[in-house]
Amino acid sequence: MGEVLLHWAASKGQLQTLLRLLAFGAKLPANTRITTTDSHPICTAAKYGHVNIVHALLNLGTDIDYPVGVHGETPLIIAIHEGHLPVVRTLLERGANPTLPTKLDHTPLEIATTTGRLAVAECLISHVKDLPHTAEVDSLGRALCAAARSKQVDIMKMLLRNGAPVNYIHRRQLETALINAIRAGDDEITRLLLDHGADPMIGVESWDSPPLVCAAWRNHQSIVEMLVEYNQRVKRHFADAMVEAANMGLEDMTKNFLLKGANPDHVRSGYRTPLSCAAQHGHAGVAKVLLAAGADIKVSDNQGRTPNWYASWLGCPEVLALFRENMLSGAC
């Protein structure tokens, strides 16, 4: 019962009540760095924004990074979620770890970013910049990726002003800020990143990478043109991008890359030709575009399978009819 009352006092900011409860024998949970489902009054105080309770519990020896819940959220992360800047500032000033992630590998600055807490993010950045260089770069880079993913333009601008590495690769999430902006289809953020030096040649170990392929697969024509405008080297990725466009049945996008000079029989990373992709998925319109550009129905992939094999396997009469017509016209 005493523990329940401690949480009630913490939620209401009733410091004297909390101290009396402790004096009469109510027990605080033991400090632990192992995540527990048992909450702690300091987490309750952080949730409701009561700085006085946070100070008092820290003075009593409570672990400032006490993790609670299935995701292991610390008082700092709880305060960030709720947008309680005074509590965030207090915890940081008293030594809370500004980079300690949850069990889901979400850092405090990433959470402030994705929830749009501009002032909280600014406070966190000021503490992150006091960290060793590697930790600072990692924290700011991850936050920049999160800002692009969640379309937080103002926070992104603040991160860039504070030295966030624009080409940071978040290897666990297989993302860069630029790829996330393209995935979100956000022209403004994509241009902002390119203006700050984002390199459209940098990719990650993901099927929708590099950036030009990502834009093509999602049918973001304006972003495709933007990437070409900013860096002519992306022309090297025209053929790969065309394969993904064909795979998705995007006729106009496929035609666009063909007009830019992409090889209609390109095999992406030993995978399949655009025509095989179109045949496999029954994209007759794309198949027609590719055949008109000279695609060869006899070109095989790394498994020795041709576009005609995929069309027969799928049993798509429209694509098979196109192929028969193409073979007959070739025979003539």
State the gist of this model:
This protein is mainly α. Helix content is 57%, strand content 1%.
Uncertain residue segments? none
- The CATH architecture classification of the domain at 231-332 is Alpha Horseshoe
What's the Cα radius of gyration?
28 Å
Query: Can you tell me the overall shape?
Result: elongated
User: What about the largest sheet?
Assistant: 2 strands, antiparallel
Total strand count, please? 2
CATH superfamily of the domain at 231-332: Ankyrin repeat-containing domain
Distance between the termini: 91 Å
**What is the tally of helical segments?**
20
Helix percentage range: 55-70%
User: What's the CATH first level of the domain at 231-332?
Assistant: Mainly Alpha
> What would you call the structural class?
mainly alpha
For the biggest β-sheet, the strand order reads 1-2
Q: How are helices and strands ordered from N to C?
A: HHHHHHHHHHEEHHHHHHHHHH
Keywords: ANK repeat, Repeat
InterPro entries: Ankyrin_rpt, Ankyrin_rpt-contain_sf
ANK repeats: 1-33, 71-103, 173-199, 270-302
Pfam family, one: Ank_2
SSE layout:
Elements: H1 2-12, H2 15-23, H3 41-48, H4 51-59, H5 75-82, H6 85-93, H7 108-114, H8 118-128, H9 133-149, H10 153-161, E1 169-170, E2 175-176, H11 177-183, H12 187-195, H13 211-217, H14 221-230, H15 238-247, H16 251-259, H17 274-281, H18 284-292, H19 307-314, H20 317-331
Helix pairs in contact: 1-2, 1-3, 3-4, 3-5, 5-6, 6-8, 7-8, 7-9, 8-10, 9-10, 9-11, 11-12, 12-14, 13-14, 13-15, 15-16, 15-17, 16-18, 17-18, 17-19, 18-20
